[in-house]
Amino acid sequence: MFGLIPKDEKFFKLFKDMTENIIEGAKLLKDMLDNFENPAESQRNIKELEHKGDAITHSIIKKLNTTFVTPLDREDIYELASKLDDILDLIDVCAQRVIMYNVESIPPQAKSLGFIILQSCIVVDKAVAMLGKQSNEQLFALCVEINALENEADRVCREAISVLFDEEKDPFQLIKWKEIYETLEKATDKCEDAANILESVVVKNA
Amino acid sequence: MFGLIPKDEKFFKLFKDMTENIIEGAKLLKDMLDNFENPAESQRNIKELEHKGDAITHSIIKKLNTTFVTPLDREDIYELASKLDDILDLIDVCAQRVIMYNVESIPPQAKSLGFIILQSCIVVDKAVAMLGKQSNEQLFALCVEINALENEADRVCREAISVLFDEEKDPFQLIKWKEIYETLEKATDKCEDAANILESVVVKNA
Amino acid sequence: MFGLIPKDEKFFKLFKDMTENIIEGAKLLKDMLDNFENPAESQRNIKELEHKGDAITHSIIKKLNTTFVTPLDREDIYELASKLDDILDLIDVCAQRVIMYNVESIPPQAKSLGFIILQSCIVVDKAVAMLGKQSNEQLFALCVEINALENEADRVCREAISVLFDEEKDPFQLIKWKEIYETLEKATDKCEDAANILESVVVKNA
């Protein structure tokens, strides 16, 4: 079925723009957490990418409104665009929380989560690039990889929170860091949501 | 496409009943937060509206089961009804939290959020009223407005929580108010979810 | 419509396997909370069932990829499988939280929630068993029952948290138990989500 999709691949191009933008955001977040040099500037840069992402999403919706034949079902294009949008939104929320909670340094577990988020975004980009091009098996394998990264993020987050409850004596600090860890973990959940849409699109068009 | 919808506009009438009921609930919540005179009674009144909302949702589903031709896809009618239902559910949860946490007074940021929720419900009502009637552009503009209100609620909520961490010395109070602010903000998220469904319905039928 | 579904009922068989596995998990969780004898072992057993559930979900998706005619829409089968999967995921998260937070004993409200979760999973199993077999009215009645159980869980959870705020003097303990109660309640939300899918599938095929 996918082999027969129309030549107008502009939607795929827009999705590619989107996932590349997401990777950019994930790199900035990782760098913000790793180096923590000018976090306020990192946050502003991530916010800018988030606005750029919104603009791409908007282009996709506009295009849907003026295109008669689309390579996938209209609602799937819409759904995928909005799930991808959610990933960068969450990356932005993570950066915001770090700034808003005025944290002083970044514990290693938060850096690990930043690393996993970036890995996951890279795999999402690969999976989206395969839409309409490759065998379903390869796309499924990438979705499995995204799920595995989400599981790993979940494990790191759980351990980080356990450590917090063991070591943090200030309840206010505990509340802040618990939420930051959980928000970081949620970014990988959003990658998994996008993978689930990809999987269901492929299943539907099988 | 929407110009050609069948004359049986009963679904649109039921959706209108639903959004008017939601506005009623949002007004009660705003009044509860602004005046805080008899919060327990406000909460009971909101709960009553929430039951009324459930009944309307149920009528829509019943109607779906007995109607052969519907003005929109069956699953979209179902989806939209359930997202609208979620808005009033959240308004009810907000009122419940205020009662359950036995708060003594309402800070200005919570009042601002009550105001934004009401604005957002009014725009949702306008957007739903346009289904099947007006140009897509106007409906899209209303969805943009709902998104802007959600962003504003998000900003107010973030600032309110920052203030909490700066000023509140009692961790129990901080936990309570953090959750109330977040629940108020979530009500505007639910308006945005409804806007997203409206947008996708319009895209689908473009 | 459902009366005319193809004879190949393997999907229904797989869904039945899934809901029976979910009931198994809910029983283990209830037992873990009621007796609290070897919670770490209970948690491991629940995790095992969760992996088994993933395998069944995977079989359903594989089957979707190789089956030409399905008894329901492909996307509905996919959606229902993923919502059922979420129930057991949440049961697993509940067990994990109990272990991770190193709790010493289980308060009666958590036991009540464990009981309600099991009831709800039993009704989900009944509702899924009716897909393609019985009258819509009966399936709707079961969905109403699942909603009622969710409401009851919500009430128990709210009361439990009120009690926490009244009696717990340690903010760290309050944070832990608030989250455990909320996670238990969320498991019944996931049952409701599955009921909503069932309801929408029936509406769609009415």
SSE topology:
The structure is a homotrimer of 206-residue chains.
Chain A: H1 10-35, H2 39-66, H3 74-100, H4 108-130, H5 136-167, H6 171-204
Helix pairs in contact in A: 1-2, 1-3, 1-4, 2-3, 3-6, 4-5, 4-6, 5-6
Question: What would your notes on this structure say?
Answer:
The structure is a homotrimer of 206-residue chains. Chain A has 206 residues and is mainly alpha-helical. Chain A has a single domain (6-204), classed as Methane Monooxygenase Hydroxylase, Chain G, domain 1 (Up-down Bundle). Helix content of chain A is 83%, strand content 0%. Chain A contains six helices and no strands. Chain A has helices at residues 10-35, 39-66, 74-100, 108-130, 136-167, 171-204. Chain A is globular and about 60 Å long. Chains in contact: A-B, A-C, B-C. Chains A and B meet through helix 2, helix 3 and helix 6 of A and helix 5 and helix 6 of B.
Oligomeric state as shown: homotrimer
Average pLDDT figure of chain A: 91
Work out the number of β strands of chain A.
0
Low-pLDDT segments, ≥5 res of chain A: 1-7
* Most extensive interface between two protein chains, with residue counts: A-B, 16 and 15 residues
Helix content of chain A: over 70%
Overall structural domain count of chain A? 1
- The class by helix and strand makeup of chain A works out as mainly alpha
Beta fraction of chain A: under 5%
Given this structure, which CATH class of chain A is correct? Mainly Alpha
Instruction: Return the CATH topology of chain A.
Output: Methane Monooxygenase Hydroxylase, Chain G, domain 1
- Span from first to last CA of chain A? 7 Å
Q: How would you sum up the global shape of chain A? A: globular
Query: So, CATH architecture of chain A?
Result: Up-down Bundle
Organism (chains A, B, C): Pelobacter propionicus (strain DSM 2379 / NBRC 103807 / OttBd1)
Protein name (chains A, B, C): Phosphate transport regulator
Family (chains A, B, C): Belongs to the UPF0111 family.
